[in-house]
Specification:
Length: 367
Amino acid sequence: MSRHGKVLVAMSGGVDSSVTAMLLHDEGYEVIGVTMKTWDYAQSGGGKRVTGCCDLDSINDARELAVSRGFHHLILDIREEFGEAIIGNFVDEYLAGRTPNPCVLCNTFIKWEALLKRADMLDCPLIATGHYARVREQDGRHIVSKGLDPAKDQSYVLWGVGQESLSRTMLPIGGFHKTEIRELARKSGFEALANKSESYEICFIPDNDYRGFLKRREPEATAELAHGRLVSTSGEVLGEHDGYPFFTVGQRKGLGIATGEPLYVTDIDPATNTVTLGAKEELERTRMYVRRPNFQRFDRLEGELEAVVKIRYKDRGTPATIVMDGERVLVDFHAAVSGIAPGQSAVFYDGDDVIGGGFIDRERPDA
């Protein structure tokens, strides 16, 4: 009989989720490890380079650790849900002229749901993951807070997790630095695990070539978009491109033309298959809309609120005023920000706490 009850731990085979399982097991929880199979290499049509998660070696690594520690390990096949919700959305977003956040969707709308469903089947009141973030309770609400290691903080990708899910979630490594996690694995006798490299690619695109993936996935649609126009912010035609889905706002490299000065993608118009290029300062914006918001501190934003807003994972954040405008959040930045890419996540912070977040809209409010 365990001292603390049962917990279902998501194990990718990497060092973070493995140490998460070990810590909970050592604390006296009855740990059940589960590795989610989300895709097959054959589905990607690309190379076979190992990405550090989702592949057969990683599944075996997770199973071996569970066996060595004496707790159960299961494999959960969610390829169908993943393909429809994550890969399908990824393709649709690029074809809509937006830059998707597949890892945010996967974390918040697929993995948590799949974990909780299986946890209920196994009578596990709790689930745990190896994210560098923390969950705390305030005034009856469960709020995600930044992880202790600023270089590894993953609170940005967890803005979409709902209250019921957070109330059952444990994030044991959120109070550690990455170096400490590797050292814990090493001291536990898992030297290879401690030295395991990390993956930064999208798991279903192991060669990191999303353009090639889109062409293989939607050959007719992408072929029809060839010979689009590259124009300047003044409307001058600068050249042709192979299709607007192959660009993202803020992009500088791979534009397909040579000019005497650096140019950046400042806008994408799917209706006309036009990509607009401009100088770096023309990327700056002071306002944006955020669609499909989810709030963790409260059910709905009432009135204006001051927050620090991050528009990408590695963004340091910019102070802003946020307010509901219909079903969207209107963000007024206190200083201009550069490279606001529609489709990416915008996350609202109060100190270390996540207030909420949503997806940056293509439509821009009048400045």
